[in-house]
Amino acid sequence: MSPIIREKWGKSNTAHSFLSCGRESSWINPAILKERTAGQVLVYSSADKPFRSALGTLARVSAFWYAVGMNEAVFGQGMATVPTMPFDPEIEEMMHAGVHLGHAKSKTSPAMVPYIFGVRNTVAILDLIKTKQKLEGALTLLQAIAMRGGMILFVGTRPVGRMLIPEMAGELGMPYLAERWIGGTLTNFKVIGKRVEYLETLERDRASGAFEKYTKRERTRKDEEIVRLKRFFDGLRTLKRMPDAVFIVDTNHDDTALREAKKMRIPVIALADTNTNITLIDYPIPANDDALPAVRYMLGRVAGAVREGLRMQADRKADEKKEGVVGK
Q: Under CATH, which architecture does the 127-323 domain have?
């Protein structure tokens, strides 16, 4: 959806409301008019509507935000011819998903300042160009891990992650934790593995009819225990060894998972909002980690990279098998 300009007339001043993707987000000086030419944007001031210097400054700032929304470079007042920037559909998709929207400026982590483009209405805005660069590096790593048969543990225990992580990880055949982080999942791996084995034993006994020897009350307790264990350990059934990487949706909420992964020297890939200490993450992806559309977009990209790695692994095994048959 292309941004549009809506005109508003006041008693003393004239202003334009800039809408990016259907959202009113900034004010732009009506003295700045845009005229498209072949491959260029012509920006000029209307001489019959002079503005005070304060509005002139506001116009420059608003024009800059307008350039971001339109993927064009528009600067300053007065006659100027500026070449347009190339259209980037990936950044356009990120904007539609709200990946660039951070937290309030007062909650900004100092480590995230290099990844913040600016502040609008006290809300920090992430630089999507840097987000794209970091995302590409993280996706390359995830694809390589999946291609060599590695294991990736997905962690997302907030409501947004709880809605998306189980389905995605289950489709990829990867372990996950979506209810809450189980303390010692990485640092006390053997004990956690025994709890998973106990859950599977209970399920086998129930399926085989071994529970019939218990009283009705004891069978009820066994069933309740299975439900409780499945709630917390169901996503760890495929975690038969230490993972090769950990993907965390929100490191502020799942900080214990981050600390355990760092202690066990396991690479951490995570979304990093503007209130995140990015220095603790090995492969950070500056992005909104609260909104459902933003997290869904990022997890979709992650799932695509892992799926591609698994496909490449399957193709390689098929080729090796074929070469082995030919060799015989």
A: 3-Layer(aba) Sandwich (3.40)
